[in-house]
Amino acid sequence: MSKQTILIIEDERAIAEVLSYNLRKEDFEVLTATDGQDGLRRAQTNLPDLIILDLMLPVIEGLEVCRVLKSGARTRDIPLLILTARSEEVDEIVGFQMGADDYVTKPFKVKPLIQRIKALLRRKKNATAEGEIVVGGGIEINRTQHRALLNGVELSLTPTEFRLLWALVRQPGRAFSRHELMEASMGDDALVLERTIDVHVKSLRQKLGDQAERIETVRGVGYRFRE
Ligand code: CA
Q1: Does the predicted TM-score (pTM) go above 0.90?
Q2: How far is Cα 176 from Cα 170, in angstroms, rounded to an integer?
Q3: Distance from the CA of 182 to the center of ligand 1, in angstroms?
Q4: Whole-number pLDDT of residue 114
Q5: 57: CA distance to ligand 1 center in Å?
Q6: β-strand 5-9 against 215-218: which pairing, if any?
Q7: Which residue of 48, 58, 186, 216 is most buried, as measured by CB atoms within 10 A?
Q8: Can you give the residue range of the structural domain that contains 215?
């Protein structure tokens, strides 16, 4: 099996070096970038298995890098671990806007950080290994068969509802903006009002019966599937 690649976007050379050294020792392939622009380019070109992103970066700020990565079709599923010295920003980071998968505040210890990285990679691998089936709250979705079951009973969903549910269940706990959900369920070129998603969500909730409240409204943002 080929090595897993980790991209480190960090302008503090000492930190980048410590991380690179330890990750290579753990048999990872390591790429580094020292500013946001270079980091984005490397992420988009190399499509690493995981990205470690510092927030305070020259040229393009870490938060912006995060936003671009999480809105790009090819990069949005890459696990993203944020490094930050600013613990007060953590809510924002793990919240919908940034969509980061995990974060570590500086100063950090290398060993726990590597464990977090491995956990993220495992989670991603499990998601892939399970193929198209995701189970959350009595809900089971098989994308290959295009079937969704609720407590073992098949749901009759429109294609849009199906994709919407898939997007939400796949990342439980993550708040999605209406725009993100539109992209996920109707495609990038959907020229519809963001409110349209509310209509689909409403209908989806009705079909989900006793699991309806699993789809939570995130005020001022969009929706989230409760874990
Ligand atoms: Ca920095």
Answers
A1: no
A2: 12
A3: 34
A4: 94
A5: 5
A6: unpaired
A7: 48
A8: 137-225
